[in-house]
Amino acid sequence: MNLDFFCKTHNILCCAACITKIKGKGNGKHNECDICFIEDIADTKKNLYDINFEYLKEILFLMEEKIHDLKKYNINEIDKKKEELKNQIQTFFTKLRNKINKKEDELLLKVDNKYDELFINEKLIQKNEIYLNNIKKNLEQLNINNNNDWNNKSNLSLLINNSINIEKNIKYVEDLKKK
Questions:
Q1: Which residue has the higher pLDDT, 132 or 53?
Q2: Does residue 15 contact residue 45 with C-beta atoms inside 8 Å?
Q3: 17 Cβ partners below 8 Å, 6+ apart?
């Protein structure tokens, strides 16, 4: 069948069977539509063809540009940016962990120093207690020996030795005060 007609309602070419009033076996599909001969619509369709052809050329050009732009920003660039971002995150958390570790070390050292200081103080106390006992003994001896005469040559070395011990004890106590 020849497509000699045009259905304006559906914008489609039709044959004589399509526009007939007789229904059946595909006939009469467009019998209620606005129908014209194809010669009557040819100029309108040619003008639309030219306009649409130019429009499609512009769209094609724009689409090619967009595709080209998209290709510039390809998968490699996306992967590169992903890796850069992951590296930045890792760097940040590495620095953060380093700061936390450093702070932990500082606090542990402070605890060690504090307990070492307490241990030193304990040793110092023990040493001072020993020295204190020596001072008491020396004072008891001096008190006993103080009654002796410094003019007595036999006791003189003992008295001088006691005097030296007193001087040492005084120096030790003065050093303790400074500490």
A1: 53
A2: no
A3: 1, 26, 27, 28
Helix, strand, or coil here: 65?
helix
Instruction: For residues 153-177, give the mean pLDDT.
Output: 71
- What's the rounded Cα separation, in Å, for the pair 73 and 154? 110
Residue 117 one-letter amino acid:
E
164: number of Cβ within 10 Å = 10
What is the residue range of 165's domain?
Answer: 76-178
Output the CA–CA distances (angstroms, integers) from residue 44 to 12, 53, 58, 97, in the order listed.
14, 14, 21, 76
Give how many domains the chain has, as a whole number: 2
Confidence of residue 37 (pLDDT cuts 50, 70, 90): very high
Same structural domain for residues 56 and 87? no
